[in-house]
Amino acid sequence: RFQSTNDTVTRNKGDGISVVAQDNSTVNALTIQGATISDNRGRGINIEARDNAVITANSTIGGYDASTLGQNIISGTSFTEANIISRNSSDGIRVLASGNGVVNGNLINNTIEENLGDGAALVIDDGGTLNFGDIANNEVISRNTIRLNSGAGLRLNSRVSPVTTGVLNALVQGNTISENTGGGIVSELTG
Fold it and tell me: If pLDDT is split at 50, 70 and 90, which confidence band does 16 have?
């Protein structure tokens, strides 16, 4: 289990937040909410499931709870659930499934802007599964503002070989994606 709530992660020499699971390991309830992740020399957020690992990140990356109007309430103090991910030297967010790794996740209500790579990249490399398309399990890409990134706003990429399988399931709705140098929503499937 990994939870980062209301953190400021800035000016690090590598990725702002990186969660890597491999060799059949499991990460449950990955949550990153209310964070400011900016000016890091790598990616803002890097999530990788490799070699049969499973990461469940539908607790949420960002968020919007209608009952609290998108706020976390901790000891009576209110904080936003949304993340601000900006000005990182690579992708704002990259989620990778490789070697039959699985990530069940979402991106909800984040501001992702001015990163030097893609705003958000969902990548399958040599087989894996990315589930971001099941509304019943809170696995969606919704309510984000993704703009002014040097790459695509949202990149969906699957590279497989003749002996591997990639499953990329994404429900993209209600986002504002604009002014990204590499395009808005870019989907590339190879294999």
Answer: very high
For residue 135, how many C-alpha atoms fall within 13 Å in the half-sphere facing its CB? 4
Instruction: Give the whole-angstrom CA distance, residue 185 versus residue 3.
Output: 28
> Residue 76: helix, strand or coil by DSSP?
coil
**Structure tokens given for 11:** 């000016």
60-90 as b/e: b if 16+ CB within 10 A? bbbbbeeeeebbbeeeeeeebbbbbbbbbbb
Q: Are 167 and 130 contacting, i.e. CB atoms less than 8 angstroms apart?
A: yes
Residues 143, 64: Cα–Cα separation, whole Å = 8
- State residue 76's pLDDT score: 60
Distance from the Cα of residue 60 to its chain's centroid: 9
The model's pTM = 0.93
